[in-house]
Amino acid sequence: MWPEPQKTEELLAGVKNGDKSAVNQLMERHRDSLRRIVQLRLDQKIQRRIDVSDVVQDVLVEANRRLADYVASPQMPFHLWLRQIAQDRIIDAHRRHRGSAKRSVDRERQLAVPAADDRSTMDLAAQLCDRELTPAAAVAQAEMARCVERAISQLPDQDCEIIIMRHYEQLSNQEVAQALNLTEPAASMRYLRAIRRLKELMAEASSGSSPAAEE
Question: Looking at 82, 107, 132, which one is the last position of a domain?
């Protein structure tokens, strides 16, 4: 999902050396990734009121304003820093539009559960598919993806968050640990627990039980 890091580092070196064209290249090559983040994390009701592209542009403007400070003292990889700014802008958008919503955005999940036809959902379904979770060996991958989508929507926010980070944002365990301020073993344990819960929900759904997330 995120651009190749070596080129990013080269552009950051150019920024540090005063190359103005490197600034523009750096921001533009991350635009699509930022759009993906905003689409995943901005409440669907709010997305009907504000344009995702406007939020992305706000993120890029803020990143450009703060870029010199980042280059002088980077505390994390550039894409995690950019992601952090995006999350702040998304929180701001939720706060601004909370009062105008017919239903409180506080009661809406802030993570948008990816659709079953999303490529990452299809890939996750393929990884999770096994005989214990399917009524027959020939279950279509598309149906498995729909099952994954429904199961993710039932997960507690913490579990949903880490699955989206790992499988939709395609962050490594090390990057997740940095972003969530966890140790790497703690991030790994949280991810494994979330996958276990996801499999349990899928198994319950395939057996006809009412899915309920484990407390």
Answer: 107
pLDDT of residue 94: 84
Q: Assess whether 147 and 89 both reside in one domain.
A: no
pTM: 0.77
Rounded to 10 degrees, the C-alpha dihedral 149/204/143/155 comes to 10
The residue range of the domain holding 135 is 119-206
∠ CA(158), CA(193), CA(161), 5° rounding?
A: 25
Q: Supply 54's token pair.
A: 């406007």
**Structure tokens belonging to residue 194:** 């979330």
What are the residues whose beta carbons fall under 8 Å from the beta carbon of 194, sequence distance 6 or more? 155, 158, 159, 160, 162, 163
Q: Judge whether 81 and 30 are in contact, CB under 8 Å.
A: no
Burial of 139 (0-12, 13-18, 19+ CB in 10 A): middle
10-residue averages of pLDDT along the chain (215 residues): 93 95 96 92 83 95 97 95 94 76 44 62 75 50 80 90 92 96 97 94 73 44
Contact 145, 128 (CB under 8 A): no
